[in-house]
Sequence to fold (205 residues):
Amino acid sequence: GRAIVRHPDVFLFDEPLSNLDAELRVHMRVEIAKLHKTLKTTVIYVTHDQVEAMTLADRIVILNNGRIEQEGPPLHLYQHPENRFVAGFLGQPKMNFVPVVADGANLRLGAGGPVLLTRPVAAGQAVELGIRPDAISLAGGGIPARIVLVERLGGSSLLHTKVEGLDTLLTVELPGTYEAATGTQVHLAIDPARAHVFASTGQTL
Fold:
């Protein structure tokens, strides 16, 4: 309040919600957004919470060890991350990362079928596939997998699935009404338009 009456050119918020409980954080996030729209003053908001960053910012600057990894509008960073660090920071649940070997326009996940790409990658190149849980659906004839664990969150359910030949589990986000039991065999379909491919350096290809 004391800062507001001085009519500053810039407000600096440094982790203002970090010590609040979950319900109060949501409430205060809305209040800060309303205050920003009312005052129309530039705000520099420092946070490690990607939800706060996505919901409050007009532009996000993502820092890693003091280095700017990427900056831009929230949805642009979410949809077009320039590297693995940015892709892993934004999004809840987290993006799936799977080491694979490219075969031109295809990537093969373990013993499963190929994943088509919208842009070719040099055959034999070791890369990492990044795919968000909501970009994976269940479809007949897709990549065979087995459900290892189901997390029911109410509005959505997270299926943690095992694909033969992969060391990591693939997380799939489905509507909360989906009924599935541990051990069920399913087939996964990956949206090629939302598949991200990262080089060994971590940069997006």
